[in-house]
Amino acid sequence: MATLPHTILTDIEGTTSSISFVKDVLFPYAHERLPAFVAAHADDREVRRWVDAVAGEAGVASDEEVVAILREWIDADRKHTALKALQGMLWAEGYRSGDFTAHVYPDAVEALRRWHADGHRIAVYSSGSVPAQQLFFGHSDAGDLGALVSAWFDTETGGKREAASYARIAQSLDAQPDSILFLSDVVEELDAARAAGLQTVLLDRHQDYPQPRTGDATGGHRRVEGFDGIDAG
Ligand SMILES: CSCCC(=O)C(=O)COP(=O)(O)O
Ligand SMILES: [Mg+2]
Hints:
The protein has 2 domains: 7-17 and 102-229, HAD superfamily/HAD-like (Rossmann fold); 22-96, Transcription Termination Factor Rho, Rna-binding Domain, Chain A, Domain 1 (Orthogonal Bundle). Helix content is 45%, strand content 11%. It is built from 8 helices and 6 strands. Helix 8 links the parallel strand 4 (180-184) and strand 5 (199-203). Helix 1 runs antiparallel to helix 3 (63-75) and helix 7 crosses helix 8. The ligand CSCCC(=O)C(=O)COP(=O)(O)O binds at residues 11-14, 22, 26, 79, 84, 87, 126-128, 132-133, 136, 160.
């Protein structure tokens, strides 16, 4: 990339961080603790808000039914805003008690630090809720990376496969779309970002995608295998 755009907007799972950490550590942690968590916090306003939202959407009445639905959604990797908000609350306990730290690829840590030091603005757009994103970067394997990120977006801004979400993010960042580079492992997300005028790069990490996505499978997006390839080419 000849000149790196001023703003770098990055996805998390499969991009800065391994899919396996999310699927094999975070999701099982939430799945196991969800019933006790909802029972213990049933009167907390934020918990109630999301539990009631799922109950209304699914047409069920009891918290136990909602919990069963949420656990099915975890197994199916549904990127539902209510699930993501509740997962974030659950993971808070795990990070604070030191049960795990968040995986961030060393090449991503190095590039994020370098871009930040060079004056680039770094923003995150993930299906994980904003509080979950902040916990993630605040408790990474490489320490607290939260200060590197100056803006956070989740699906309350809109779905990651919808061009309108990226237009909203550009507006919120007060930036021209083409001054933003979006990094993701998901071609459909990159397609949506490109349709909104953003620059795009596909992360195709061998650990996450053992079959390289080349040719048509890249969707015409520039493909790299790690963050060190982004401002190298
Ligand atoms: C930062 S929260 C953990 C990741 C997560 O729950 C998730 O759904 C990640 O999706 P992404 O949009 O970052 O691929
Ligand atoms: Mg991803």
